[in-house]
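The instructor's notes for this session suggest beginning with a concrete chain rather than abstract definitions. Hand out the sequence below and ask the class to guess, before any prediction is shown, which regions might be ordered.
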Amino acid sequence: MKRLIETFFTPIEDAGDVIVVGAGSTGVAAALAAARLGLRVTLVDPASHVGGTLVSGIPILGYHDGEKQVVAGIADEIVRELHRQGGTEDYPIRSTIVNVDTERLKYVLLNLLEKAGVQLRLHTLFTGVKTEADCITHVIVEGKGGRRALSARWFVDATGDADLAVAAGVPTEKGRREDGKTQAMTLMFGIGGINKDAFNAWGGYARMTELWQNVSAGFRNPRKTDFSHFWGPASRTGEWAFNGTRVLEADGTDSVSLTRAEVEGRRQVFELVDDFLRPRVPGFERAFVAWTAPKIGVRETRRIVGAYTLTREDIWNFVKFRDAICHGSYPIDIHSPTGSTTEFPDQHFYGGRHWTIPYRSLVPLQIRNLLVGGRCLSATHEALAAVRVMANTIATGEAIGTAFALCDQHQTEPLALNPKLLRAQLRAHGAWLPEKKS
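After discussion, reveal the predicted structure:
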């Protein structure tokens, strides 16, 4: 804090080699990969914990293509550590769905970051950026100690909303092509006090879904089909997590709209428990809201325009890119921005079929020392609906952290990095990246 940036009149701090903005699934993986390869990393997030949507109560999805595990590396390591600590009973080698104990997962992630030597800054909000000659030089953050300008050589946008990228001047897109509207939001919540034996004896999920379809017209929740089943590890006795709320036409990049979504999500939670489950569904007579996620789940906001834009056709046709940094199997899953429908053509997917994400989709236009992963990578509205699940967002983060370490080693920039080097390094650290045959 010896100098001031003339433009901002803000104290400067050296944040090391890499600054990662956003400590969700992508940011944690990027920080771990870079730090383990010898870079000094600072990880910034406004929350009080790490994990983001990864610890919202929804399972980690996307590991398995119906025949084999296709996402490994750090995404697999996290689950193995969760197993060791009793935080899950599921295995990526067997299933695409891994239920997690979210509190245990927060603890696991913190321990991994500490062991890797990542400098963690929670309660720290990204507010701006300084650029020179097509490079970011500083990110501006606000915290309890006031405003700071953090300097580094490499920068990672893991915000989910492309906040860093758009502030630096990277072109972005948002929502579907015809009207810019984004997928519906969902607030995850947990219900405790469930008598699961009584519920299953009554008819379980299938009968509850039928009942909901018959009465849902009288509820504010526009989701009229089902609740995406129930989630959570079996160790959480009498408790299930619900992916059942639906908030339409909300913009995750606007604080007023996002506030409305948070309020609406919580109204739907208590309406569902008080007016549907407790009075109508056997096994839920003594049920209560055990928890709600720290913030509403946002499926889509901005996406960068990168060196390559991943398309619906790439996903649908299971394209294997030569610069692929991870594989995935999750179907195109579009929760309508304006209605109750969900596009989920799972019959086309699985059965041993899998698609890939190219490294070029992480490389933004215009800024030379920035990489972008997670749900704000370069993809169309439809392609994002498949790649946004967390096994893949973790994998994109791992690729970014690894890429910056290689850029440092070979004295090059992300766009010029040889993807063969990146794929080899990822493979050496456990990623599932079979050689392309052709």
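Then share the key points. The chain has a mean pLDDT of 95. The two ends are 54 Å apart (CA to CA).
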